[in-house]
């Protein structure tokens, strides 16, 4: 991507040549495999997830920050730029990659045994196997400490019972990382092949957001697992929350990709669409909107880049990620809504990507931690007082 008119700060110049090459390679793949089709996928509420996973695996996008087991081992900034480009195509596309790499593969890589890593990670890195992450429940979203799913020792293994809801990739996944409460041991993670007897996956339909993404409910009805299904290194809520921090980092970049695509669309439209004898871009109110949006987008990109450099230096903290995720999602959805006004009635047409991005960002604003939750994380960091309960 060359420096665009809205990139007044020339943020592109702050990237290394390798980072720009990675970003450009991701964008080229999306231009070929996703952009020509994604409006149709959104309209049809469908996604060729397995085909795309193999394409993404071939480029090294799955488990991009992980080392070994066929993973690319790239930098945090490179991963952030990939997320930016993925979500510039569609939030559902970035979600496919984020859930696979930052949640499912991250959990196995960080907390799994050598045998579990050897069994699952190479195929997941290639996109031959798809994973999902079962934390959210029908009655427990922002409060995972109250999860109702239970795992109990059962002879030579484990017995799981519970329901997980709003699970991205579940309808096509081969393996799920399921988080359950174990008596006297707290929250633990389990690897559950989704063809195991007692597991039922139901695709969630009638979504008005993230329609180019496959979302499901996972019902665990006395599912018997072998003893080695447990993730040995995952003890307590800190384990799944650490995976969420990784996913939120990607969202901090990704949401800005959706915002960028909206702004580029609005700029192109405003400079060619004429009203009252001149282009829309010639009116003061339109220029004010464009200026404010460019300002917020560039501020967000600088914050995301700083976050990535901090991560690569090993200093990233959850409050930093909360601050960036809160800013990126809040500003991105406002940019999408403002761009829609510039296009007028055309802004709601599927011919343009803006309303699709705006609808998607309604979900991005609330998943992996709602804006309110991230405000409270920042508030606790400032005051030292937890306000979650």
TrEMBL record:
Record bears the keyword Flavoprotein: yes
Essential cofactor(s): FAD
SUPFAM superfamilies: Acyl-CoA dehydrogenase C-terminal domain-like, Acyl-CoA dehydrogenase NM domain-like
Domain Acyl-CoA dehydrogenase/oxidase N-terminal: 16-128
Keywords: FAD, Flavoprotein, Oxidoreductase, Transit peptide
Ribosomal protein keyword on record: no
Record-annotated membrane-spanning stretches: none
Gene3D superfamilies documented for this protein: Acyl-CoA dehydrogenase/oxidase, N-terminal domain (1.10.540.10), Butyryl-CoA Dehydrogenase, subunit A, domain 2 (2.40.110.10), Butyryl-CoA Dehydrogenase, subunit A, domain 3 (1.20.140.10)
Coiled coil: none
Pfam families: Acyl-CoA_dh_1 (PF00441), Acyl-CoA_dh_M (PF02770), Acyl-CoA_dh_N (PF02771)
Cross-referenced InterPro entries: Acyl-CoA_Oxase/DH_mid-dom, Acyl-CoA_Oxase/DH_mid-dom_sf, AcylCo_DH-like_C, AcylCo_DH/oxidase_C, AcylCoA_DH/ox_N, AcylCoA_DH/ox_N_sf, AcylCoA_DH/oxidase_NM_dom_sf, Glutaryl-CoA_DH_mitochondrial
Residues annotated as domain Acyl-CoA dehydrogenase/oxidase C-terminal: 235-382
Residue span(s) of domain Acyl-CoA oxidase/dehydrogenase middle: 132-223
Family classification: Belongs to the acyl-CoA dehydrogenase family.
Protein name: Acyl-CoA dehydrogenase family protein
Organism classification: Bacteria, Bacillati, Actinomycetota, Actinomycetes, Micromonosporales
């Amino acid at each position: 991507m060359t420096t665009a008119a809205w990139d007044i700060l020339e943020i592109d110049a702050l990237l290394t040549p390798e980072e720009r090459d990675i970003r450009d390679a991701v964008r080229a793949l999306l231009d070929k495999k996703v952009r020509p089709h994604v409006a149709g996928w959104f309209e049809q509420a469908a996604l060729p997830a397995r085909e795309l996973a193999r394409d993404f695996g071939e480029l090294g996008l799955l488990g991009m920050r992980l080392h070994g087991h066929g993973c690319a081992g790239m930098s945090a900034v490179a991963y952030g730029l990939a997320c930016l480009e993925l979500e510039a195509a569609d939030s559902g596309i970035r979600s496919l990659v984020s859930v696979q790499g930052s949640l499912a593969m991250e959990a196995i890589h960080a907390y799994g045994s050598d045998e579990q890593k050897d069994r699952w990670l190479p195929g997941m890195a290639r996109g031959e196997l798809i994973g999902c992450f079962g934390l959210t429940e029908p009655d427990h979203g922002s409060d995972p400490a109250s999860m109702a799913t239970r795992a109990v020792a059962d002879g030579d293994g484990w017995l799981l019972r519970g329901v997980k809801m709003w699970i991205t990739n579940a309808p096509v996944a081969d393996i799920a990382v399921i988080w359950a409460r174990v008596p006297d041991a707290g929250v633990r993670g389990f690897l559950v092949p989704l063809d195991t007897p007692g597991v039922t996956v139901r695709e969630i339909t009638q979504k008005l957001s993230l329609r180019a993404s496959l979302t499901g409910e996972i019902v665990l009805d006395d599912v018997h697992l072998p003893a080695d299904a447990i993730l040995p290194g995952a003890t307590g809520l800190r384990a799944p929350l650490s995976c969420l921090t990784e996913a939120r980092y990607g969202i901090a970049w990704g949401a800005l990709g959706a915002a960028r695509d909206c702004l580029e669309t609005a700029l192109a439209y405003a400079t060619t669409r004429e009203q009252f004898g001149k282009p829309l871009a010639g009116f003061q109110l339109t220029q004010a909107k464009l200026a404010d949006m460019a300002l917020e987008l560039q501020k967000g990109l600088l914050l995301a880049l700083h976050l990535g450099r901090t991560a690569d230096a090993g200093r990233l903290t959850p409050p930093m990620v909360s601050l960036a995720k809160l800013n990126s999602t809040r500003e991105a959805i406002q940019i999408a809504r403002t761009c829609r006004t510039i296009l007028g009635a055309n802004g709601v047409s599927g011919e343009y990507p803006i309303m699709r991005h705006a609808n998607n960002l309604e979900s991005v604003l609330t998943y992996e931690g709602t804006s309110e939750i991230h405000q409270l994380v920042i508030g606790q960091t400032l005051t030292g007082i937890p306000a979650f309960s």
